[in-house]
Input
Amino acid sequence: MASDKKVEQITSMEDDFAQWYTDVCTKAELIDYSGVKGLFILRPYGYAIWENIQAYLDQKFKQTGHENVSMPMLIPESLLQREKDHVKGFAPECAWVTMGGEEQLPERLCVRPTSETLFCEHWSHVLHSWRDLPMKYNQWCSVLRWEKTTRPFLRGREFLWQEGHTLHATEAEAREETLRMLEVYADCCESFLAMPVIRGNKTDKEKFAGAVNTYTIECMMHDHKALQSGTSHYFGDGFTRAFGITFADQNNQLTYPHQTSWGLSTRIIGGLIMTHGDNSGLVLPPHVAPIQVIVLPIAQHKPGVAEAAQNIIDRLQTAGIRAKGDFSDNGPGWKFAQYEMKGVPLRIEIGPKDLEKGQFVAVRRDNGEKSFLPLENLEKSVPELLETVQQALFDKARQNLETHTYTASTMEEVREKAQNGFVKTMWCGDSACEEKMKEAAGVSSRCIPFQQEKLGDVCPCCGRPASKTILWGIAY
Output
């Protein structure tokens, strides 16, 4: 019988965090595996999460003056070779098309790992005057990077993302744009996904291939590891010189524009899972949840119960809440576990006794707290509860970040503390010390935080004078 169905169990995160993560991805019906390693199928529920993120960001991009465009997916090898640092950085991950039908192609075509070169070629055709600037474009697409080790959302060979690309008349304008878009990402993570971030500058070793500066937002996962969650790059005029992109300035002198790019991908869904999930499955912040409220009729065969449940759904949807009901013949226990697994932020139950009392039962996914609330206040109490859940998830994640961010002054301290979180130290700025820290303590530099602190006077790696604070961590 349907009522005897069991919701599949997931591995405890305390026993095996990696397996817990995979279980949530598959059993919460976010992804499925395809016939090609590293190419994952986003199931409707997983794609709906991405659609909500996409809608939020797309609105922000348009509010800041960006327009959506679409570039080809194939890049001629000769085009890719025109920016040497860029092609060197991506060479190990490139996938190549060499045949067209049954014919050998005269030139290899790269399946785009990113689209800087395509935008540059286009701009070289259409930019003429300072009046054409700024050019502020965004593209929603998939890219292909031939990763050796793959995991759902976190590291796939093909993944969905957006990539913004802009041109500006001056360095100051381009730098302002780079930081503005990083803040858009930070706002998305904190306000929409309830994921607190650390904003900072990547070291030269960790910056994007071909960039002058790469800025990042770093998030802490439930297991205290780091996830790079969005990056914004200032390119200077390196690409524009390589591609011969010029414009006539206000003095009618030919000059090179300054360029930025920035991107956020479906990897953020992996971060969402690992920031908020628990041993019952996925936990979704209400702002991003495809289903914000699941309405379950209890003893729905009793007179008026199913009708009352549908009325609740209709009222919530009219109020702008993403509400859904489950009127199947599965038992209440199965339904409770199923929607907990899927991370629905709020469960509403309505049964015969509730109808008699003019109330409904609301159960929070984040902490299991149960409330008995008047039906007449539905449109007021449910949005308030959803906002309470959203804030509670952010506060919990922020506490995790703050509690597990440490300071250290020696290599031994870094090695010890990094097993349980982020570590801040002073740094001399030498990439040799950065490499030494990775070898000796097993951590990578996450960023040079915008908020600098005076933690000491010397670098823990070499003992030389140090003026910068740097954040270290074990990363996904």
